[in-house]
Amino acid sequence: IEPDPPAPPAAPAGALPDETDHPIGTRRARRMPNPRGQHARTFVTPPGDVPPGPARARRSLRGRVLGGVLLLAFALAVFVFVTLAQPFAGDAGEPVRVTIPEGSSVGEIGDVLAAAGIVDSGFLFSVRATVGGKRDDLRSGPHTLREDMSYGAAIDVLAAKPKAVAPPATIDVTIPEGRSRRETVRIVEKAGLRGDYLRASRRSGTLSPRDFKAPRKTSTLEGFLFPATYELTGDATAGQLVERQLEAFKENFDSVSLRTARRKNLTAYDVLIIASMVEREAQLAKERPIIAAVIYNRLGDGMPLGIDATIRYATNNWTRPLRESELAIDSPFNTRKRTGLPPTPIGSPGLDSIRAAARPANVDFLYYVVKPGTCGEHAFSATDAEFQADVQRYNAERARRGGNSPTSC
Question: 369 versus 165: which is more confidently predicted?
Answer without folding.
Answer: 369
